[in-house]
Amino acid sequence: MSDSIKTISILRKSQPVDLEVEEGKQVRFYVKEMSGAQRDEYLNKTAQKSRLDDKGDVVGLKDYRGLYSNLLSFCLYDAEGKLVPESKIQEWPDAAQKALYEMANDINGMSKPDSEGAEGDEKN
Fold first, then answer.
1. CA-to-CA distance for 69 and 88, rounded, in angstroms?
2. Under a CB-based contact definition with an 8 Å cutoff, are residues 55 and 124 in contact?
3. Tell me: the pLDDT tens digits for 42-74?
4. Dihedral angle at the C-alpha atoms of 101, 108, 14, 30, nearest 10 degrees?
5. 3-class secondary-structure state, position 38
6. H/E element, 120
7. Short-list 90, 55, 51, CA closest to 70
8. Residue 75 contacts residue 31 (beta carbons within 8 Å)
């Protein structure tokens, strides 16, 4: 038995990001790590959009609406510390949503929806 004690942080990771909301005007937002409850709710919402094969394995999505904004609505906070509503995020351009989604994926340790399986299959 080892005498070393492992320390696990329960502090949520956070990454500041400035969004240009008007020409020349930036506002600070924060992409934060989800809590366990937020993660579970996000995964349940995502599972409802999954397309399954005859064996019950996930083979894709049947509904792509809100793909980026769904995740962001659980981990994107404004300067006052309030979650940004999904409806507001949906108004933003695709490029902004995509960049924030990638940050959220990274900070939450989640894989991208189309990266791991597809690339892994091509290598074999």
1. 9
2. no
3. 999 988 888 888 888 888 888 888 889 999 999
4. 20
5. helix
6. helix 116-123
7. 90
8. yes
